Amino acid sequence: MLKINSISKSFGGRPVIEGISGEFQKGKTNLIIGSSGTGKSVLLKCIVGLITPDEGNVFYDLRNFTEADKEMKAEIRREIGMLFQGGALFDSKTVESNVMFPLDVLTEMQVDEKLDRVNTCLQRVGLENVNKKMPSEISGGMKKRVGIARAIVNSPNYLFCDEPNSGLDPQTAILIDDLIGEITHEADITTIVVTHDMNSVMGIGEQIMFLYKGRKLWEGSNQEITNSGVPELDDFVFSNKVMQQMRNHS
Amino acid sequence: MTGFGQYILFLGTLVVRMESFKTYYKLTLEECVQIGVNSAWLVALVSSFMGAVTTVQTAYNMVSPLIPRYVISQVVREMTVLELAPTIIAVIFAGKVGSSMAGGIGTMRITEQIDALEVMGINSASYLGVPRILASLLMYPLLVVVAGICSMAAGYIVGGITGIITPTDYIYGIRFYFDDYSVTFAMIKSFVFAFLISSISSFKGYYTYGGALEVGISTTAAVTTSVIAVLSADYLLAQLLYVR
Known about the structure:
The complex is a heterodimer of chains A (250) and B (244).
Chain A: E1 2-11, E2 14-24, E3 29-33, H1 40-48, E4 55-60, E5 63-64, H2 70-77, E6 80-83, H3 95-106, H4 111-124, H5 140-152, E7 158-162, H6 170-187, E8 190-195, H7 198-204, E9 207-212, E10 215-220, H8 231-237, H9 241-249
Parallel strand pairs in A: 3-8, 3-9, 6-7, 7-8
Antiparallel strand pairs in A: 1-2, 1-4, 4-5, 9-10
Helix pairs in contact in A: 3-4, 3-5, 4-5, 5-6, 6-7
Chain B: H1 2-14, H2 21-61, H3 70-110, H4 113-119, H5 124-162, H6 167-175, H7 181-206, H8 212-241
Helix pairs in contact in B: 2-3, 2-5, 3-5, 3-6, 3-7, 3-8, 5-6, 5-7, 7-8
């Protein structure tokens, strides 16, 4: 389980997120949603430690990450897998080397063991015969899948995904969403996905946190989101034409 | 001053929470190929022209018949060993290798590759900076040696072809009153320049924020700052190490 307590962050005196608290459950796909510029990515970066919050704490299974020393932070980070918006694959390395990278630097595994693990992860995300390709030689959807394979190769306890299906066609986006959901349940890990895509919300949003102008306005599941009674959330959810039609039909 | 303070802090982060020796060894070897082998032809070309031009210019300016011809190669030797090889090649090195370092690391920053390293618990500054600095410290002195040899060899060839100086006189001048401390001095300068160029370029790349435009700005800043640092260090080292 991952818990955040009153997280606030300002840039140049302008508050971006203010007093956000919440719990993200293990074995569930937890979503942080909201319009662009509401502070979703900043909150995620505060959680993984890429940005230090001005106030508040992040607890990884009761371990205070925000106030931990460098060694403790490094230890917790070794339990983290993260999929970045653009994939963040290392340009100079092949797909295989990218996925193997966390094993190279964080483990003492033998080469054969590492290769087995890499192939297992690549197969899990539906990629075969791409081991020797460079990131520039594969499509955007494949890059995301390689990114997922790299994120899970070290068997993390926590998986973070920053807009995993941005820039993808709808079919590939659903494929990526499903993959994240399946991996979360299979490995029983705590997954947090930042998104503004309603397909993801309705598809894999088991627990959802809605941010509006840097504050948490609502929390619930995808079953409850259409009846939240929060006007700002309704504006966000039903900004999509398909969702509008669904509402009109019901 | 803020930038200088940030640079000192960056140097400090290079040596904390380091990865295993094996990791740095592999990365350093890769960087040695990038930095050393891939720069050798350019260094050889530039230094050959430097040696040839120095020979011709020195001969052109020696109008007195009382000055022996072997002084030409003596001048070529002194200029090459003391300044042209370590300092001018440092400017070339900053332009080729420094810009590549800053551009590469800067691109990694804006495409979240550095964030990916940090999330994995890796000290990204150390992981990216240390191999580049080590490889520069290993390869730059070798490049300076290559530059010195090519420069003096080019002077020999051009002097012979044009008839400015006979091969015998040239070799005599090269060996005449040779002080091997010049080579020691050149090597000390090489290590200092290699460290300055690689660390400044890594620093500029590491603190790139924004997009492609900012990567370009960082790359330019890396080259200009490195060159200024090299020239300043050149003067300081001359004062410190070459006072008789």
